[in-house]
Amino acid sequence: xxxxxxxxxxxxxxxxxxxxxxxxxxxxxxxxxxxxxxxxxxxxxxxxxxxxxxxxxxxxxxxxxxxxxxxxxxxxxxxxxxxxxxxxxxxxxxxxxxxxxxxxxxxxxxxxxxxxxxxxxxxxxxxxxxxxxxxxxxxxxxxxxxxxxxxxxxxxxxxxxxxxxxxxxxxxxxxxxxxxxxxxxxxxxxxxxxxxxxxxxxxxxxxxxxxxxxxxxxxxxxxxxxxxxxxxxxxxxxxxxxxxxxxxxxxxxxxxxxxxxxxxxxxxxxxxxxxxxxxxxxxxxxxxxxxxxxxxxxxxxxxxxxxxxxxxxxxxxxxxxxxxxxxxxxxxxxxxxxxxxxxxxxxxxxxxxxxxxxxxxxx
Length: 363
Hints:
Blueprint: H1 9-14, H2 29-37, H3 50-57, E1 63-65, H4 76-84, E2 90-93, E3 109-114, H5 126-133, E4 138-142, H6 145-157, E5 161-164, E6 180-183, E7 192-197, E8 203-211, E9 217-218, H7 226-232, E10 235-243, H8 246-251, E11 256-258, E12 265-268, H9 286-296, H10 302-314, H11 319-326, H12 328-342
Parallel strand pairs: 1-2, 1-8, 2-3, 3-4, 8-10, 10-12
Antiparallel strand pairs: 5-7, 6-7, 8-9, 9-11
Helix pairs in contact: 6-7, 11-12
């Protein structure tokens, strides 16, 4: 199929992309504008269940954006429902793009727009590297955090592209079909800049602390790229720790950063970021992530990987059953205290942050 846009031929060759048309949808701004014109502008009740939202708004082959940051206010429970429903052939994108790798062995994600995968001090995702080597996932573009964020920002403000120095000193330029290097037209001397096009993923789940039934959403803590993603993406689903009256958002405007007209669906989903961190609500489950990164995502045992995801995702009905497996009420109380103590909104004298580290038997 013939592509609609002109791409970096060096990157196409390096990434072995034979059909560039697979790249088109991410930068097809006109189709996004046409879709946005059809979105509902009236205030209507958009509430539905997570199962309904995934079934209606996530289609096979979609470009699926990761939001939040790695395990901080990330809609992990939405991703797990995508895996449970067996969606196929998705393209993963995000800055970072940590969580899409979980679905690769099951055919949920077939393509990557790369930035970063891992869980900081817990380690790197070695299983992803193995998946790339074994051709279980194809890389469509390589990005720095900053450059990808600029692509989302360009989409947010309606610009066709933004210029940056990001990626110029790296080989990512030669592994990214989308970006172009030109000379700064405002300087007489040679001054290369990188042009980053507006990026438009198909669908994003954004987990927030509070939202109303119309889709107005409040975020406490870092918003990361979520404000830009809300306007950049074709389909936007809000999952919220709490659904509050519209009057509360009107009377307390701090943190109200996503307006309802961008939002297609609202899901009442307490613990929607578990086992990650939701600022102001619960701390992240360190044991879960150590088990996941050091054993499940080590790439050393397919049996250990499948056993892990079967227990935590495929054999789990919803986020409440997930929390029960984490420890139920005791986990909730402990991680509520840890979260508040870490932000100095709870007396930390006497709060125990220690835990038993997960050490793989082969180490």
